[in-house]
Amino acid sequence: MKAKSDIGLVGLAVMGENLVLNMASKGFTVTAYNRTYDKVEKFLNGRAEGKSIRGADSIESLVASLEKPRKIMLMVKAGQPVDDFIEQLIPHLEKGDIIIDGGNTHFPDSNRRTEYLASKGLHYIGTGVSGGEEGALKGPSIMPGGAKEAWPFVKDIFQGISAKVADENGDLTVPCCDWVGDAGAGHFVKMVHNGIEYGDMQLICEAYQLMKTVLGLSADEIHQVFAQWNETELDSYLIEITRDIFAYKDENGEPLVEQILDTAGQKGTGKWTGVVALDLGVPLTLIAESVFARCISAQKEERVEASKVIEGPAIEFAGDKKAFIEDLRQALLAAKMVSYAQGYVLMREAAKEYGWDLNYGGIALMWRGGCIIRSAFLGKIKEAYGNNPELSNLLLDPYFKDTVVSAQPGWRKVVGTAIANGIPVPCLSAALTYFDGYRTARLPANLLQAQRDYFGAHTYERTDKPRGEFFHTNWTGRGGDTSSSTYNV
Predict the structure, then answer these.
(1) What single DSSP character describes residue 434?
(2) Within 10 A of 220 (CB to CB), how many other CB atoms are there?
(3) Which of 91, 142, 275, 395 has its CA 20 to 30 A from that of 62?
(4) Using CA atoms, how far apart are residues 425 and 415, in angstroms rounded to an integer?
């Protein structure tokens, strides 16, 4: 083992342990530290035994074990615990040392920490890590941002342990990791990734409910459907694990998925994505609906009581099940593309707001392997931005436009069938409504603006006058000529 470690890692929970093992397997020497040393000892005598991993029983010994510039990765709970560890580390570090936050941190905290540590002569890297337990061990998607001066010192480690995807020759050599941008850019991109993940999961759940409730398919039949879908453009990690979930039986030989309580948990990253979208004025409708779907699922007892007193329509389906399943596949594919389109619009607006230079094609490349939302058509997103780096919306790229337009007939049938049968499909329908809104040249917001001017003198623009010229009408004859001093689009 080397006299000094290449990197130290704080926090030996599931992700931390597996990242340490991953680093060691790629030839790096790692120092592991945990707030309780017995966890370090257990790790060293267990999974880490015989590997290039040493333990530290204090912050001082952790720092002393590292080669300079020291690189310390925090894999602890987001929020105050990160700030607490940073404060513990600062007195023992020297100018140019690097603190890496690999948790699910909210990007404003990374903005703040980058600036704060720079004032201390230290570098901060806020990096999103996606892939769960298996990804952390075998190769995650890694999205670093913060102090760019620190990137050369961690690049080999991060790209070494990240997932790899095929290059132009088909060799798995392209790392799913590259520098994202300044300050909180890395954690912002990870937040958007998680928001898309929320949407993807809810879309799949809506497809499942339609297959089960409207078509009356068994778990084994649904397993077969997802297995077939995973051989199409829907090929993805989430479709793959959903296929496996429907094949899994409990101790009684029954589908385990049907024994799981229908209340979804969440850790807040989907909500953050929706809140930021509202702040930036981006219609992130699908992801927002996926968060609300989890919220209503949590109201289990209320829903059970409501189901006893509120009736919906009787379930009726007289069509061709096989044809409907294909319509459902098309609807899922189109809605998924809308979700990515909305997520990319959010990243573009954030880049303008925060002065980040984001590589949108590169982000798609980072998501092609190792992460939860990895899917076949991410390569198409990279191509889209390679062809047009200024692309304003993925739905304007020829491949995505043609795919979504072609999916329309089946997509509309699916949403119509769901509504007719009283089946909630918040994300499938939100995606379709966004698509219809985005492709409509004239929306009824002219009436809305008239209403605003009527009751609040908020003014309006006219179709026969230049943009930026505002008008107010005395609609009742009782008002004056004074109009509101603010006009927000």
Answers:
(1) H
(2) 11
(3) 142
(4) 7
**Annotated catalytic residue within 17, 39, 71, 197:** 197
> Is 271 one of the annotated active-site residues of the chain?
no
CA 93 from centre of chain: 33
Q: What is the pLDDT of residues 53-102, one digit of tens each?
A: 999 999 999 999 999 999 999 999 989 999 999 999 999 999 999 999 99
Beta bridge partners of 230: none
What does the pLDDT read at residue 373?
Answer: 86
Active-site residue 221, yes or no?
no
C-alpha dist (Å) from residue 235 to 55, 230, 232, 336 = 41, 4, 6, 12
DSSP reduced 3-state for 299: coil
Q: What is the 3-state secondary structure (H, E, C) of 354-385?
A: HCCCCCHHHHHHHCCCCCCCCECCHHHHHHHH
CA torsion sign for 59, 64, 69, 70 is negative
Portion of the chain with pLDDT greater than 70, in percent: 98
**What residues are paired with 166 via a beta bridge?**
172
Asked whether the beta carbons of 129 and 142 are under 8 A apart, the reply is yes
Residues 453 and 140: their CA atoms lie apart, in Å, by 52
Q: Choose, from 39, 71, 164, 190, the residue flagged as catalytic.
A: 190
Indicate if the pLDDT at residue 104 is higher than 60. Answer: yes
Q: pLDDT by residue (tens digit) across 48-60?
A: 999 999 999 999 9
